[in-house]
Amino acid sequence: MLKKIFSILIMILLLVRLSGNVFAKDIYTATSTINGVTVNWEYKVNESNQIENLKCTNPTALTGNITIPSTLDGRTVISLANEALKSATKITEIEIPSTVKEIGLWAFSGCTSLSKVDLGNVQKISDQSFKDCTGLTSIKLPKTLNKNASGAPFVGCTNLKNIVLEEGMTVIPDYVCANTPITEIEIPSTVKEIGLWAFSGCTSLSKVDLGNVQKISDQSFKDCTGLTSIKLPKTLNKNASGAPFVGCTNLKNIVLEEGMTVIPDYVCASTPITEIVIPNTAKEIGMWAFKNCSLLKKITILDNVENIEGYNSSNSDLVFQNHNEDLTIYCYKDSMAAKYAIKYNIKYVYLEKTTTDNNTDKKEEQNQQKKPNNTPTNNQKPIKKEDTTIATGKLPQTGATITGLFIILIISIVSTIFYVKYRKFRDIK
Known about the structure:
With 429 residues, the protein is an alpha/beta fold. It has helices at residues 2-23, 336-343, 358-370, 399-428; strands at 28-34, 37-45, 51-56, 64-67, 71-72, 75-76, 79-80, 91-95, 102-103, 116-118, 124-125, 138-141, 162-165, 171-172, 184-186, 193-194, 207-209, 215-216, 229-232, 253-256, 262-263, 275-277, 284-285, 298-300, 307-308, 328-331, 347-350, 353-354, 389-390. The protein has a four-stranded parallel β-sheet with strand order 22-24-26-27, covered by helices on one side. The longest helix has 30 residues, at 399-428.
């Protein structure tokens, strides 16, 4: 029995070794000359005979401006390896050829003299690719970047205060600007999505132009403590997945652009805003849109809002979950917002309605005088101000004018009769 088990184990080990030989890629070597220095390279070759994981084995010998070769030994270079030029402290500029699609982990980390980078048409910049490149002050991220950048590539770049996003970019990758000292950022009009944690930890960031973005992912701006105000564009759709501004402890002003039709899920959650106005164009407010807004005391919601998530399907307030006890919804009587406030026992104030119809004004004014003051029902919180209609004018006073006309008519008739009689009397004489 033991002999049989031993034989099976030997067979398994042999299979593992054989599979390793099948799948392992050979490491090739090559040399090139840059600035008079012989550079030693090692790389692997994929099934298409392209060079992957290109790595320099003598990086400290490199100086000045460096251009990564686009071909070696007749093969096209498509990716740079982990630690490809790590600790090449004497290089000042790097140009990535357009053939390279991916930059590996820590590829240029510790290149402290590096001040200029041309990223070519790279699609992925891996975690900490440029870690501790303290000489880097500015960089342009190409439109070819895809969403799956795994980690913060510029962590430790303490002087990188300017990041430009190329027009034509459609998605800002996860983490791509995280933990950088940038002070402002402009999102190109072509960008539709901002990835997870894309600007998280950018504590000096104080100005953001969101362009025409449609989605801001979970914690995109996490811990951006320098951010005090932001305008959310009308192009945002409902599916914002998570609180994009969590940890933005000074973000007390959020403006929702007129033209917005839906307030996305979570979009203002966990922010220190104190008041906000829902645009006239908004039809829907998403779930958890104002969750954990513990300082929010005033929100204005007009008649245009037809749906507030959870109103018909939940027994608890989802939109304003964990709200301030003084939160007050300013709304119109019988509106969706008023119904929501009453259902979930949130304080509310009825707004005044105005009209230009004078007859309607007068009737409404009379009705208001006849009606007793509304009293709260169903344990709702007290109404601070009644819904009223403001009269914009009065009808002209017509009584005196009609009386005057009648008197003039009588005088005219009497005068005519006397005149006719006078003519007859004169003719007789």
